[in-house]
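Changelog-adjacent note: as of this version, every example in the card shows the full chain rather than a window. The one below runs 228 residues end to end.
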Amino acid sequence: MTTSRRWPDRWSAGQALALRLLDWQGRGADATLVALPRGGVPVAAAIAERLHLPLVTWAVRKLAHPWAPEVAIGAVAPGGVVLWAHDRLDSQHRADPSLREELAREQRLELERRRRRFGDPSPETLKGRHLIVVDDGIATGMTTRAALRSLSLTAPASLTLAVPVAEHSLLPALARLVERLEVLRAVLQLRSVGEWYERFDQISDEAVLRLLDEARRRAVLPGTGDRG
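Full-length structure tokens:
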């Protein structure tokens, strides 16, 4: 299943994950790494450097419980994708769709800000490409599922999901959403993704932009939007 050994940081985890993806090396003509910001960007940037693949971001946002921000009760992603974990909703939010919509509306604003800021590609530029979706880990699966559903709307040639660590019980459901699933460590009752890294700092917008700029200097990307 797993060992207790942690990675020094997200970049190191990405280097380890790249070894599982060596068959994609040099496939930049038809394959793209898609990082879920912010935490997935350093992981994907390490893979991009090792495998010489283009790197883009794809914004997705967790919908947090109003009184327990650490609890994910849903997620929003581009293309109008909204997912809810109905078993985690309180009685008010289950009964009143307007309360759920208010939560989703707030996060859609941040999602659009990140799309502009990080220059997320238009859906048309991803059509027919093999997309390798990368994050730093999966605890509840809400944002990952939303991202995969959103990216499937772009009509990719295939979807691969690659993460260093994930909750073991989620893997069967996630595997049904992709053609390929790569997880270095599957953990039963994963409490926190950050526990599997010695250093798990918050990633700033500026750090994301720096990593994306470095990746762009190494590879030619499909068309991307403007950063604002």
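Structural remarks: Residues 125 and 222 are 6 Å apart (CA to CA).
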